[in-house]
Write a structure and sequence with these properties.
single chain; 409 residues; Rossmann fold; 2 domains; 7-stranded parallel sheet; 7-stranded mixed sheet; globular
Length: 409
């Protein structure tokens, strides 16, 4: 079997995130290095316009549609890694997973659709292990900062205490950035699916839904769904919209790392809202707002109104200036069995969903292309379990993230 011609191919390069990712790859790797990459999408005109925009005329491109198995098979055999930005993945993503698994091509994406994640693991993990394809979902803001943030804290905890912390809390201290139509479309699709499927609604409440079947975790997990005063952080907290995704990825990481954190590990996420009555009010409003949105998105008539007149469309999102002004600051507190605590911080220098996500996704793909099949076998991995501390270092050097210890005993 001949070696793949490219290290990575960006599939969906003309999507909102795909364009940002292409620009980042040009800035970081250009077209005159030993690292070989290409772009793919379904429109020749859009691909040519994208190459002109970023002066990437020497970067090869391929025509590939998410519904065309022959075209997807062609690019899967040309590259070590396909990085996909084509969502909602529950609607457009499965065929590419099937093709990558068939040809042993590695794959990463930025999905936050946990129900689709579980379906892909259940359906394709056995074959991925046979073919050697490494599939790594959730390589954007969902869920790299959370997943690697917990790994970073637990590594430091082991240095201090000799073992990991039984409980970790993530609290979003600062978050500035705009939403995009693609992310909103994914959320609407989850609400739509859940409204029709009682089993899916039950599954979405299971914190261990994407863990391997033999995980044996039984610890009851906390879930911040309303306004709660957090004594450890001394402030009111409210629900964090992506907590339902990140917590499940972190638990899968713990399972894949042979319960390296703790056998009865507890993890939850929330937004810090302030110490006073205004903080309580903001936390309550956040909870009500999310609940109302999901209810309206689940009902067909109101969903139509939202999609037609209110919500951003796929392909729409924050401007370049808004991306540059965006940032986030995440605080992690680890509580050890001995009662001692450690506090760490993860920050990003762009808006979380797009500017920062594109840089994380790009480096995740590059890192994956460098991991030998002997070091990590085929299957469905998480960022923490396949990349480990190597990606933390790379993201710090190349992607504007920071990881640091704030408090320790």
């Amino acid at each position: 079997m001949t070696s793949p011609e490219y290290d990575i191919i960006i599939f969906g390069a003309t999507s909102f995130v795909g364009e940002i990712l292409t620009g980042y790859m040009m800035d970081t790797y250009g077209s005159n290095t030993d690292f070989k990459w290409a772009i793919a999408g379904r429109s020749e005109n859009k691909l040519q316009a994208l190459k002109e925009k970023y002066r990437a005329q020497t970067i090869p491109h391929f025509i590939a549609d998410a519904a065309d198995e022959a075209q997807l098979s062609d690019i899967a055999q040309k590259t070590k890694v396909i990085v996909s930005t084509v969502g909602p993945y529950a609607l457009y993503g499965e065929l590419l997973i099937k093709v990558c698994v068939k040809y042993g091509c590695d794959y990463c994406d930025l999905t936050g659709e946990i129900q689709w994640y579980k379906r892909m693991v259940d359906k394709y993990e056995k074959d991925a292990k046979k073919s050697g394809a490494r599939i790594v979902h959730c390589c954007g803001f969902d869920s790299i900062p959370s997943d690697l943030g917990v790994l970073f804290l637990q590594t430091k905890a082991k240095e201090l205490f000799g073992s990991g912390c039984q409980q970790v809390k993530m609290r979003m201290a600062k978050l500035k950035g705009g939403a995009s139509g693609g992310t909103i479309a994914s959320m609407v699709n989850i609400a739509k699916e859940a409204a029709k499927d009682p089993e899916l609604r039950k599954e979405l409440k299971n914190p261990y839904s994407i863990c391997p079947k033999n995980h044996n975790f039984t610890s009851r997990q906390d879930n911040v769904s309303g306004a709660v005063f957090d004594e450890d952080f001394n402030c009111w907290v409210g629900p964090f919209v992506m907590g339902v995704v990140n917590t499940r990825v972190v638990h899968r990481s713990n399972a894949l790392l042979n319960k390296a954190y703790h056998e009865q590990f507890k993890y939850d996420e929330a937004m810090m809202m302030g110490q006073d009555k205004k903080g309580k009010s903001r936390a309550r409003n956040m909870s009500w707002g999310l609940n109302i949105f999901m209810i309206l998105a689940a009902i067909k008539p109101t969903r139509w109104i939202l999609e037609r007149f209110v919500l951003l469309k796929p392909g729409q999102g924050p401007t370049e200036e808004e991306q540059l002004k965006g940032h986030y600051d995440m605080r992690f507190m680890g509580i050890h069995e001995n009662g001692q605590k450690i506090v760490t911080k993860v920050t990003g220098d762009r808006d979380p969903g797009y500017g920062s996500t594109a840089k994380m996704l790009g480096q995740a793909a590059v890192c994956l292309s460098k991991i030998s099949k002997q070091d990590k076998e085929g299957g469905f991995w998480t960022p923490a379990s396949i990349y480990g501390e190597a990606l933390i270092q790379t993201l710090t050097e190349q992607s504007g993230l920071t990881f640091e210890v704030l408090e320790k005993p």
